Amino acid sequence: MTRKVVAATGFHVRVRNAWARRTDSGAGHLRVLRAQLRRGPAAPGAAVFTVVLLLTAWPSRTSPHEEAWHGDWINTSAVLGSSLAFGLPVAVGVACWQGGAQTRAGMRWAQEQAVRPPVARALLACAPSVLWPLTAFLAFTLLLMGMTWWTATAGAPPCLEAAYSTLLLTALTALAHVLGELLPLRVVPVLAAVGSALLLSLNSARTSYGSLANGLTFYDVTPDRRYTGRPVPGYEDDFGSPSAYDYWETSAPSDVTWPYWLLLALLATATATAVGVLARRWLPVALLCAALTSAAVLPVDYAATRPEPVLMAVRCSRGTPVLCLSDDRAAFHQESRRMVAHFAARLADVRGAPSHYLATAETGRGCRSPGPYTSPRGWTVEFAATDAPDIRFDEVAHDIAMSCSLGSNDSQRHAEYLVAAVHTWLVPVERRGPHTRPPAVRRAVARLSALPHRTRAAWLTDYFTALRRDSPIPGLPAPGADSPSRKKPAR
């Protein structure tokens, strides 16, 4: 019985001592980590890195001509990636500088003499180069997601983009730190920053096989949109298939590159390789390099890199004309409804006026080409819901006045002042702005405004018919005329 008590007591003492040693070791690691984080250029470099991220993201929010990202998860994902692409050279250069500074200060000898496992010494050595930019990027990601969370009406947070960007930043900064320690020359950080910038800028120049350099470059993993719902006249091909002209789409990639899951594995392996080199664990490093080499020759289709398209419903209102908005533009419904009501009142009783108004993340100014959607069965005007109201009214009025066909026939060019007059007349008076029009256009606007409603509606019907048939535009009826049908074309 006594032996059992002594044995139990001895076991308890051993467990307590082992826990105490582990606790002391953990506290020692934290003290060293705090000292390491305060030393070197990593902290000021993280501040510069944060400024670059913010400057890259904020013009997309403040410029009226840029797509607003703070109400759209997919655009937020694209801004997250593009901001990191601009900030990565800064983070890589600072991490390489930090590694070189530690070697020049003789910290390598002090780390090797410390009573710590080699892996722990390696992690503590590269911690400032990785943790400072990683903390800044995670805070930036949370800021973007927090701003989008309250305004987004469709989609989901960009978790795939955030995971890929985080691992890419971790791998490149760890590798840059190792490069700085191995080559502690002051010019190496500059070359590393320039080299990473060139690598990112050449990301579209892929080879026929996914090479290691291609895997460590920047990839756009922002998903495409796939619209569902009742097709809109002229846009039938966009429903049920990936969007053909995404605003955030990068340059055309090659036919072969890394898939998403292999990208994450590659970046994690590169990070582990960097730690292994610092820890002087050559056997694991050799195995990791063999894994990287074998993965670098895998032929992979580019489509495997991109996440699955996001299904985005397009919902249309009832009545005439019809307002169609995708779910990620639902927050602009009231503003868009007021705009459509204005143009519906302007074009009341006019045959050939647009029957649909469409706003998605890809729509903007202009029509596609003369065709079936300018036929009597109805045609669609697209607009950017995120534009400022004055710009939105002016661009929609321009597209209606052009009717997607003016300029295709030289015989119509003599009547361009009438198109400008219709454009100006469609815009609300309070939104016409201070810009001046030629005297002929101002006179035509005044005559168009003075016409009785029935006479003006009949002339506008003939106007849209002429544009649809590529025939000369009829001149404005004289004051007091009942019908413009017998008027000769404008000379």
Describe the structure using short key phrases.
mainly alpha; 5-stranded mixed β-sheet; disordered N terminus; 491 residues
Model description:
This protein has 491 residues and is mostly helical. It has 2 domains: 266 residues, no CATH class; 170 residues. Helices cover 56% and strands 5% of the residues. The protein is built from 15 helices and 5 strands. The protein has a 5-stranded mixed β-sheet with strand order 1-2-3-4-5. α11 links the parallel β3 and β4. α3 packs antiparallel against α5, α9 packs antiparallel against α10 and α12 packs antiparallel against α13. The radius of gyration is 32 Å and the shape is elongated. The protein starts with a helix and ends in a 22-residue tail after the last helix. The N terminus is likely disordered.
Helix tally equals: 15
Count all strands and give the number: 5
User: In percent, how much strand structure appears in the residues?
Assistant: under 5%
Oligomer classification: single chain
Largest sheet: 5 strands, mixed
CA distance, first residue to last residue: 120 Å
Structural class: mainly alpha
What's a concise summary of this model?
The chain has 491 residues and is mainly alpha-helical. It folds into two domains: 266 residues, no CATH class; 170 residues. It is built from 15 helices and five strands.
